[in-house]
């Protein structure tokens, strides 16, 4: 099938999602089945408004810079699709002879890709749809891990090492430090901070994830005990921790985002104030915030390469007339780390979440177990070379 190729990015950006974009572009430009390679500006917005940008207008050097550029170079947009929206997207694609469509995103994006795939099939329009996994939360089903997670995990673990060095440098001046990580419903990122113990055995002491009900009373006991033993405490808490009734711990200050999800953040500041009031200890909180998903200088070489290969494989699968699938990664058993790439139906991953395995968490110690550290350690290996000008990184943004 000869036609045009269209790529879109959606959801929260990551440090390496542009590697997937580059992987698709590189493979598409070599195909005699593709006439034009387009990107949809701002993700779903571009799909709805037929706002396509010709990606062949950029030089080979500009496109290669995508491999060391964080964020979403095409732009992203949070929006919940309706049935009418999907019909409009298909009509736009038909009008531009788009035959190959690639959606880089998380579980919500896979839901949108599935809707587009089903609508095209119902309409009788031959469109090859492939989802490319992307998320720092690592909550996609049926893949060993998602590109984006390894770099965010490496960034956070690096932060914890640096923070630990500061705390150990001033043992009499630091009391309780709380680091809040992303993780709406899952604790993969918070758990990854435990990697810091390999460099500084004394930190972090306590890690809290959303999969385990959070008790403020028990938390205060944990902090008091840890402080009594070491004189300072470094806590990691996921933004999405909930109490036994399922309510967010910092729920009173939470509003909703554009697609109706709670806008999280604030649990660390809340817990710091509780510590100061209840335990009479000095407490501070640190918010890596969006930096944890866009920190290119601390990104993982393994993660960047896997993101690139996921994009490249996605295109190659469409050339085998594969459609309605998401690229997934399977870890190959053995002493050295390696993965293979395959596919899974979009319907199986759309809108679903993979939680952190409870068998990898020690509920008594409030810490992770060795099997998780063995799982995550290979994902943070290697570096990404970032070009610099005047001492600062040089990035490429297609939407500007």
Automatic annotation (TrEMBL):
One of its GO terms (biological process) is fructose 6-phosphate metabolic process. GO terms for molecular function: 6-phosphofructokinase activity; diphosphate-fructose-6-phosphate 1-phosphotransferase activity; metal ion binding. Its EC number is 2.7.1.90. The keyword Ribonucleoprotein does not apply. Substrate binds at residues 135-137, 182-184, 239. SUPFAM superfamilies: Phosphofructokinase. Its main location: cytoplasm. The active site is at 137 (proton acceptor). Non-allosteric. Mg(2+) binds at residue 107. Pfam families: PFK. It catalyses: beta-D-fructose 6-phosphate + diphosphate = beta-D-fructose 1,6-bisphosphate + phosphate + H(+). Diphosphate binds at residue 12. Gene3D superfamilies: 3.40.50.450, Phosphofructokinase domain (3.40.50.460). GO terms for cellular component: cytoplasm. Pathway: Carbohydrate degradation; glycolysis; D-glyceraldehyde 3-phosphate and glycerone phosphate from D-glucose: step 3/4. Its cofactor is Mg(2+). Keywords: Cytoplasm, Glycolysis, Kinase, Magnesium, Metal-binding, Transferase. NCBIfam families: PRK14072.1 (NF010675). Catalyzes the phosphorylation of D-fructose 6-phosphate, the first committing step of glycolysis. Uses inorganic phosphate (PPi) as phosphoryl donor instead of ATP like common ATP-dependent phosphofructokinases (ATP-PFKs), which renders the reaction reversible, and can thus function both in glycolysis and gluconeogenesis. Consistently, PPi-PFK can replace the enzymes of both the forward (ATP-PFK) and reverse (fructose-bisphosphatase (FBPase)) reactions. Homodimer. Belongs to the phosphofructokinase type A (PFKA) family. PPi-dependent PFK group II subfamily. Clade 'B2' sub-subfamily. This is Pyrophosphate--fructose 6-phosphate 1-phosphotransferase. The lineage of its organism: Bacteria, Bacillati, Bacillota, Bacilli, Bacillales.
């Amino acid at each position: 099938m000869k036609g045009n190729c269209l790529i879109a990015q959606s959801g929260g950006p990551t440090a390496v999602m542009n590697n997937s974009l580059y992987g698709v572009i590189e493979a598409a430009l070599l195909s005699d089945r593709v006439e034009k390679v387009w990107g949809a500006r701002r993700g779903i917005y571009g799909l709805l408004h037929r706002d396509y940008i010709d990606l062949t207008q950029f030089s080979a050097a500009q496109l290669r810079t995508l491999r060391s550029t964080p964020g979403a170079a095409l732009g992203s947009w949070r929006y919940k699709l309706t049935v009418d929206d999907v019909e409009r997207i298909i009509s736009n694609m038909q009008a531009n002879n788009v035959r190959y469509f690639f959606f880089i995103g998380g579980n919500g994006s896979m839901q949108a890709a599935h809707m587009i795939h089903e609508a095209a099939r119902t309409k009788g329009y031959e469109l090859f749809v492939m989802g490319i996994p992307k998320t720092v939360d690592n909550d996609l089903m049926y893949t060993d891990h998602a590109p984006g997670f390894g770099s965010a995990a490496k960034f956070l673990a690096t932060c914890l090492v640096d923070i630990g060095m500061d705390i150990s440098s001033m043992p009499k001046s630091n009391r309780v430090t709380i680091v809040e990580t992303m993780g709406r419903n899952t604790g993969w990122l918070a758990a990854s901070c435990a990697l810091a113990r390999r460099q500084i055995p004394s930190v972090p002491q306590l890690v809290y994830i959303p999969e385990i009900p959070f008790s403020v009373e028990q938390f205060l006991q944990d902090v008091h005990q840890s402080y009594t033993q070491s004189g300072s405490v470094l806590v990691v808490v996921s933004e999405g921790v909930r109490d036994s009734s399922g309510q967010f711990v910092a729920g009173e200050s939470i509003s909703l985002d554009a697609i109706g999800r709670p806008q999280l953040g604030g649990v660390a500041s809340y817990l710091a104030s509780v510590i100061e009031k209840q335990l009479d200890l000095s407490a501070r909180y640190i918010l890596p915030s969006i930096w944890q998903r866009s920190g290119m200088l601390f990104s993982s070489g393994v993660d960047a390469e896997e993101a690139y290969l996921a994009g490249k494989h996605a295109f190659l699968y469409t050339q085998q007339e594969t459609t309605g699938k998401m690229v997934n990664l399977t870890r190959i058993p053995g002493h050295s780390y390696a993965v293979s790439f395959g596919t899974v139906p979009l319907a199986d991953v759309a809108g679903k979440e993979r939680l952190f395995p409870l068998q990898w968490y020690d509920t008594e110690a409030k810490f992770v177990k060795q099997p998780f550290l063995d799982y995550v350690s290979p994902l943070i290996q290697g570096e990404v070379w970032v070009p610099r000008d005047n001492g600062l990184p040089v990035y490429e943004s297609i939407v500007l």
